[in-house]
C-alpha cells in the first residue's frame, strides 16, 4: 500500500478546524483533524509533510512520524509543523485500523475500562451558550449538565482579571469576586459537580499561588496551566506550595518536552493534545511515561466528533487515563460526520468500527463553499503537485511552479 495524495478540507461553517484526508492506492482513505491557526497547519501539510510521506507505506506510521519530526525539527518543530504531523498521524492510524478491520483502540492495546467518564468544557457554539452561562448563571449550567448525566465541568471565570491586571497583582477580594461561579455551582448542586479551573497560563507564580489558596475552599477537580510552562521547575515550585491538584499541559509538545515536567515533579495530572503533540503515535508514549511516575493522563480536546473519538480510543487503551475533556456544543452541533460521539450518562463509549469509525458527509465534502486542496504524487512517486485553491502561489507563478522534487 502506498500514499498517493494528501488532501485538506475546510468547512466555512467551522473556520477553526481543518481535516486532512490521506489517500492510498488501495482505495483506503484515512481522516485526521487539526484546529486553531488552520492556514499555517494547512501549509505545513502540503509543504514538508507531503515531501516526506507521498509514495510511502501508510502502515509504517512509526517511521513516517520520525521522518516528519526530523524534517520539522531542523528549524523548530513546535506549532504548525507539529499540528500537521498530528493530523496526518491520526489519519494514518485510521488507515491502519481500516486495513486491519479493527478499531484503533485494539491496535493500541485494547480497552482498559468499558467507557470513559467525560467532563464538559463550557465553550459556546451555535445555540448552546455554555460560556455565557458559566459567567452569568453557573448554577443553572451545572444543573443542566447533571440532567444529562455529566458530573464534571471546566470553567475559566478569572481570565478577564488577568487581562485587567496583566497577570501580575490582584487583590484577594477581587479574586473572590471572580470565583463567584464556583460558589454558585456549590450553592446550586453541592458536591454533585466536579469543577476544574482553567487558567490559560495567564498569571505569574505568586498570583497563581494566591488564586489556588482562594479556590481551594471549593475543592476544584484541578488547577490547570496557571503559569507559562516554559520552565518545568516553576511548575514544580508552584506544586510544592499549593493544596489543589496541578494539571499541565496542552502547551507541551512531544515526549521530549514532557520529560522534564515529569522528572521535576511539576504536575499531578498530565494533559496532552493529540493534535498538537504529534498524534496517537507520540501521545501513547507520553501516556506510558506518565504511568512510570504513577500519574494520570487526559487529553485536551476542543475538536469535532472525530477528534473526540480519537481521544477516547487512545485514552481507553491507557491504564492511567482519567476523566476526558469534551465540548457538548461541539459534539452536538458539529454535524459534518455520519457518525457522532457516543456519550451517554456522563461517559463516552468507543466505536468498534474499523479505524476511528468516522465518515465525513458527502454534502459537506461536495458543497460549493468547501475548500479542498490536494497534493499528490504524479510520476512514479518522484514528483508531486498541488491542486485546489492557490494558497501558496505567488504572483506570476503558474501550476508548473507547484511541482517540486520529491525527497526520499
Comma- or semicolon-separated keywords:
disordered C terminus; Enolase-like, domain 1; 408 residues; 6-stranded antiparallel beta sheet; alpha/beta
Explained architecture:
The protein has 408 residues and is of the alpha/beta class. It has two domains: 3-101 and 360-405, Enolase-like, domain 1, CATH 3.30.390; 105-349, TIM Barrel (Alpha-Beta Barrel), CATH 3.20.20. It contains 16 helices and 18 strands. Strands 4, 7, 8, 9, 10, 11, 12, 13, 14 and 15 form a ten-stranded mixed β-sheet that branches. The chain has a six-stranded antiparallel β-sheet with strand order 3-2-1-16-17-18. A two-stranded antiparallel sheet has the order 5-6. Helix 12 (254-263) links the parallel strand 10 (246-248) and strand 11 (269-273). Helix 1 packs across helix 2 (61-73). The radius of gyration is 22 Å and the shape is globular. Residues 390-408 have low confidence and may be disordered.
Number of helices: 16
Dominant shape = globular
Describe the largest sheet: 10 strands, mixed
CATH class of the largest domain: Alpha Beta
What is the CATH topology assignment of the largest domain?
TIM Barrel
Radius of gyration from CA coordinates: 22 Å
Query: Termini, distance in Å?
Result: 17 Å
Strand composition percent: 15-25%
Q: TL;DR of this structure?
A:
This protein has helices at 38-53, 61-73, 80-100, 104-107, 130-136, 138-147, 159-165, 172-178, 180-189, 205-215, 232-241, 254-263, 280-292, 305-315, 328-333, 362-365, and strands spanning 3-10, 17-24, 29-35, 116-121, 124-125, 128-129, 152-155, 194-198, 222-224, 246-248, 269-273, 297-300, 324-326, 342-344, 347-349, 371-377, 383-387, 404-405. It is an alpha/beta fold and 408 residues long.
Amino acid at each position: 500500500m502506498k500514499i498517493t495524495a494528501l488532501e485538506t478540507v475546510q468547512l466555512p461553517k467551522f473556520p477553526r478546524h481543518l481535516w486532512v484526508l490521506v489517500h492510498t492506492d488501495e482505495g483506503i482513505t484515512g481522516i485526521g483533524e487539526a484546529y486553531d491557526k488552520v492556514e499555517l497547519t494547512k501549509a505545513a501539510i502540503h509543504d514538508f509533510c507531503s515531501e516526506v510521506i507521498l509514495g510511502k507505506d501508510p502502515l509504517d506510521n512509526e517511521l513516517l512520524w520520525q521522518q516528519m519530526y526530523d524534517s520539522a525539527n531542523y528549524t523548530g518543530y513546535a506549532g504548525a509543523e507539529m499540528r500537521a504531523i498530528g493530523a496526518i498521524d491520526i489519519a494514518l492510524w485510521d488507515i491502519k485500523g481500516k486495513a486491519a478491520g479493527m478499531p484503533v483502540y485494539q491496535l493500541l492495546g485494547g480497552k482498559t475500562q468499558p467507557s470513559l467518564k467525560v467532563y464538559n468544557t463550557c465553550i459556546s457554539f451555535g445555540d448552546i451558550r455554555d460560556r455565557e452561562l458559566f459567567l452569568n448563571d453557573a448554577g443553572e449550567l451545572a444543573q443542566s449538565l447533571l440532567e444529562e448525566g455529566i458530573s464534571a465541568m471546566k470553567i475559566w471565570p478569572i481570565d478577564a482579571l488577568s487581562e485587567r491586571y496583566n497577570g501580575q497583582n490582584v487583590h484577594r477580594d477581587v479574586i473572590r469576586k471572580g470565583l463567584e461561579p464556583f460558589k454558585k455551582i456549590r450553592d446550586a448542586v453541592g458536591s454533585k459537580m466536579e469543577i476544574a479551573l482553567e487558567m490559560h497560563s495567564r498569571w505569574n507564580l505568586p498570583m497563581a499561588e494566591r488564586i489556588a489558596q482562594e479556590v481551594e475552599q471549593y475543592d476544584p477537580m484541578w488547577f490547570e496551566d496557571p503559569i507559562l510552562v516554559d520552565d518545568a521547575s516553576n511548575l514544580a515550585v508552584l506544586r510544592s506550595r499549593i493544596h489543589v491538584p496541578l494539571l499541565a499541559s496542552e502547551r507541551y509538545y512531544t515526549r521530549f518536552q514532557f520529560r522534564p515536567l515529569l522528572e521535576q515533579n511539576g504536575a499531578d495530572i498530565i494533559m496532552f493534545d493529540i493534535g498538537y503533540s504529534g498524534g496517537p503515535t507520540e501521545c501513547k508514549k507520553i501516556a506510558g511515561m506518565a504511568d512510570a511516575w504513577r500519574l494520570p493522563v487526559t487529553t485536551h480536546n476542543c475538536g469535532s466528533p472525530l477528534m473526540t473519538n480519537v481521544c477516547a480510543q487512545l485514552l481507553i487503551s491507557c491504564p492511567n487515563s482519567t476523566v476526558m475533556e469534551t465540548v457538548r456544543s461541539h459534539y452536538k452541533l458539529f454535524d459534518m460526520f455520519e457518525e457522532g460521539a457516543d456519550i451517554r450518562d456522563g461517559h463516552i463509549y468507543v466505536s468498534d468500527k474499523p479505524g476511528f469509525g468516522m465518515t465525513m458527509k458527502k454534502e459537506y465534502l461536495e458543497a460549493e463553499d468547501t475548500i479542498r486542496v490536494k497534493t499528490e504524487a504524479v510520476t512514479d512517486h518522484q514528483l508531486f503537485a498541488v491542486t485546489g485553491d492557490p494558497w501558496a502561489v505567488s504572483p506570476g507563478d503558474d501550476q508548473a511552479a507547484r511541482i517540486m522534487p520529491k525527497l526520499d
